[in-house]
Amino acid sequence: MPVNSYFNHTKVVSEQDVVQDLIDESIAIYGHSVHYVPRNDANIDAFLGEDPLSNFTEAFEIEMYVKSFDGFQGQSEFVGKFGLHIEDQMYLTVSQRRFRNSVMSQTAITAMKRPRGGDLIYIEMDADNRFLFNIRFVENKETLFTLGKLYTYELKCEMFNFNNEGVTTGVDDINEVANKFAYTINLDMKAAGGSGDYSKTETVYQGASLAAATATGVVWDWDSTTRLLRVQDITGTFVANTAVVGGTSAATWTVVDTTPGITPSTNDPITDNEFLQGNPLSVVVSRGTRPNSG
Cα separation of 132 and 241, whole Å? Predict the structure, then answer.
């Protein structure tokens, strides 16, 4: 309750709207265009709080103010007992009104009332630096009741660690950034006698037909010069000396790699830990500390 009964500074809607307009305009001028990507829950484990079947199928463009103007926060890259960890963090501010109009009114998730932990933020700094951040915490009391109202959310975000969630947002840049860290196997197709070119994102298979396939996958990349096929979203096991057929392109080439099912590409983040285990001195030198050479 205001102390002075003649002046009310907490319930004047017109004054609150002016403040909201100024905040929205400031974010539009000094902010950054990002995409808000909500998570679709499929089967949440109530004990562990995890959902390995969650996916992302929508993306909504909205402006946010980047508060971390002097660089990413957090511990950055560090080596812990479980291997290499990347904890780059970013703080973003978004207008509550703009979020309602640009995201909540557009998404099919009717239960959304505010930004949610677990959803993603896609931000492009330039063509070579595009990032996906995972929202870890949402603070709705960043500016404490100016004229009796809250106007913004502060999003505390951390670099997204991909766990093979389905990312099909309809925005190619977002899908590409997410899926480049998915588990990927390299299939060496240098055997002579093949034909055709595989199409990106098509389903390929080994077996008599797609319906009776012994192994399937989705094409991430096909290099027609080196005849290297990179496949994600794999079911079954691809084996050597067997043709891989494109479900859409009908391209057919035979795998010559003898262990294609256990050869992950460098896009798999787990291989960072394999590298650290196999090259400890190289890692130490690269970090600036040199062991005694004498």
Answer: 38
Q: pLDDT tens digit string along 46-71?
A: 676 667 678 899 999 999 999 876 66
Q: Which is it for the CA torsion 260, 266, 269, 275, positive or negative?
A: positive
127 inside domain: yes
Q: Which domain holds residue 226?
A: 185-268
Parallel, antiparallel or unpaired: strands 252-254 and 166-167: unpaired
pTM of this structure: 0.72
Measured CA to CA, the distance from residue 51 to residue 43 in angstroms comes to 6
Q: How confident is the model at residue 170 (pLDDT cuts 50, 70, 90)?
A: confident
Q: Is residue 87 part of a domain?
A: yes
Predicted local confidence at residue 234, as pLDDT: 86
For residue 65, the cross-strand partners are 93
My answer on whether 23 and 132 are in the same domain is yes
Q: Please compute Rg for the chain using Cα positions.
A: 25
Instruction: Classify the C-alpha dihedral 178-155-115-86 as positive or negative.
Output: positive
